[in-house]
Amino acid sequence: MTEGIQNVSKPQIKVENLNLWYGEKQALKNVSMHIPRNSITALIGPSGCGKSTFIRCLNRMNDLINNCRIEGKVTIESNNIYGPDVDVVDLRKSVGMVFQKPNPFPMSIYDNVAYGPRIHGANRKDLDGIVERALRSAAIWDEVSDRLKSPALSLSGGQQQRLCIARTLAVKPKIILFDEPTSALDPISTLRIEDLTTDLKKDYTIVIVTHNMQQAARISDYTGFFLMGELIEFGQTKQIFQNPRKKSTEDYITGRFG
Ligand SMILES: Nc1ncnc2c1ncn2[C@@H]1O[C@H](COP(=O)(O)OP(=O)(O)OP(=O)(O)O)[C@@H](O)[C@H]1O
Prior knowledge:
six-stranded mixed sheet; four-stranded antiparallel sheet; globular; binds adenosine-5'-triphosphate; Rossmann fold; 35% helix
């Protein structure tokens, strides 16, 4: 059976035979993966193996890169997201993304969270409630509720990252992509974000790229191991870490390379 397809029933995201080139260079090679709803899927592998490239295919962030060509199929809830009628703005609303470096806008805490809902036409009278709910869900409300008008850039790095998560949640996504969300954070902020992702999977499907093997083992239900653009092994996280089927997976998770 194709790697990435077994073990998962009723997938919300289906990736089939995905190939991607940056110019002449092929960065993803025939990757297939089925990702279930309300789960956390971790993507691991050495630098340059294509993890970020893969995750960016799930909300068409690679569209923004010149010279990038994609073949294959990505279906989210039965919709082919590369189909001709797809509204990419709507797609990115329902498939949100949190990046490695916290990137709040240079505006107030409140306006950061209200930004997306405003663009998508939320009613002014509903905004306070939307902002509060998003900040609560991102576990930062108690720290900022008395200074919503302060600049977002006055927050600590860990708080800024939770604010960025609140900003993503405010537009009500179904899926959240995290691209190494804790690599710029200290250990305590990292644990807070990990706890938060575990809480969020009740309501969202999460895909996370991480270099931190302990993090993948701690928080994810499924893990995919990439090497040189190929998905080498995909399965339940416990199986991947305790009983990998492929030698290269074992070598990577035991630190023999990467
Ligand atoms: N915009 C781009 N243009 C050209 N090549 C790119 C671009 N982005 C990534 N690549 C190349 O594609 C390959 C995969 O990169 P990608 O960033 O997806 O890997 P990664 O596994 O996420 O790495 P890291 O863990 O270091 O972030 C690498 O060889 C990289 O140099």
